[in-house]
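Entry for the shared binder. Reason: the reviewer on the internal report wants the predicted structure included alongside the sequence.
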Amino acid sequence: MPGTSEKNGQPLSSFDALIAATAAVLSLVLATRTIRDFQGCSIDVVDPWSIS
């Protein structure tokens, strides 16, 4: 996860990398208010607080 995000110009913290890797391995959708932190991680991310 960290390598992929760094290639895309968005380095992840260790904690965010752990969250992203867990979501990827378990095929989960990550619900977070900070979608931009996980862009480029090849996981599905949603903002449950946004109006869509």
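Summary line for the report: Residues 24 and 43 are 6 Å apart (CA to CA).
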